[in-house]
Amino acid sequence: MLSLTAGITLVTGLVIGLLPAVRSARTSPADVLRASASTTDGPAAGRIRSLLVSMEVAASVVCLAVSALLATSFARVMAVEAGFAREGIVTMDLVLPEVRYDTTERAQAFMRELTEQVRALPGVTSAAVTDRLPLAGPSGSAIMVEGDTRPRQVRPSAAIRSTDGEYLDTMGIRVTSGRAITPGDNGRRVAVVSRTAAARLWPQQDPLGRRFRFGPDDSPFFEVVGVAADVRGLALGSEPPAYIYVPMSENYYAMIALAVRTSADPSAIGAAMAGIVRKLDPLLPRPPARTMASIVDDSEAWRRFQSNLVSLLAAVTLLLSGIGIYGVVSQAVSQRTAEFGIRMALGAEARRIGASVVGQGLVPVALGLVAGLVIAAGVGQLMRSLLYDVSPTEAVPLAVVCVILLSVATVASLIPAWRASRIDPMLALRTE
Q: Which residue of 182, 246, 421, 427 has the smallest Cβ count within 10 Å?
């Protein structure tokens, strides 16, 4: 990539250097000697400069528009209702080796002792264990509703989550109807389903009291005792999957996650959690504790990276556009010094001179702005899959882009315009 970039830079420099060299080689020496030092270039040269400015502005508009769309998309994703609490939750993933936890009873005893000791920590409101936290990705299982005789291949699916009696409360997942799983449900085949799962398994029906099963077709049924709010399963920008929560006693997983709701310092609680795990099982690997807020941030890290990268590119192109506009207008002012001197000597006001310079600088900017918006609309359609709840032609981000670019262009034009308005007519006339 470095070699490619260096090669493109060298080729671009050679091409740009060759164009004026060829033009100079074709110029007649007699014409150069007869020309005045302050003579302005012909219309062709002016059009070329304006075209270059318009192209710079169009490129800036495209980069700024993409950056604004991605930034808007990222902000709206982070504001999405996740369905669970983000603040005040500390988590820790654990792996229970099958060598030492070869039975469900041993694993259940460890998890029970772990949660009891963690709940006793100062500042801890509640603690719970589950086989997988939110945003860890859904895992679907075929669900057979009681009375459904369809083959497994065409049955609806849902993600099964094994939890203890305090999981929903700890994670801030609201129960919208019925009740949550309680510690007294250990050993009972009850379940809480999410609203998406209820709509998928029992469309337009009350799911409370309904029965279903997953796994072998001869396994006992679970009874639905509650309906919970939807939870994002893979990322904030993805649709909520269908979730079914069952008591931890009904399933055993070697990989578990401990979730703790606390009002204390997360790092201190994380260290205390690690100490309890070390005391209960010194051989158990202890990964670092993480807050739920950091897990949410990590799940959208790719969106943040895209937004930051394009924003950096947009800032560079905006800077180059400002420099280009300033350079072109400043050169035009230098070439028109004698003209401005004559006009001011004949009574032209300084503010009119400055206004004409600014207008000259903003004309190619306006053309580039229009062209850039058209191109940005097409690019926005191509990147529609990267946007969340944002239209590729949304007015507010594009309006912000226009305001920023026009502001930069105006400032870049005002500096040479101010210099033109302060030209001394006598000094300007003596340059001939």
A: 427
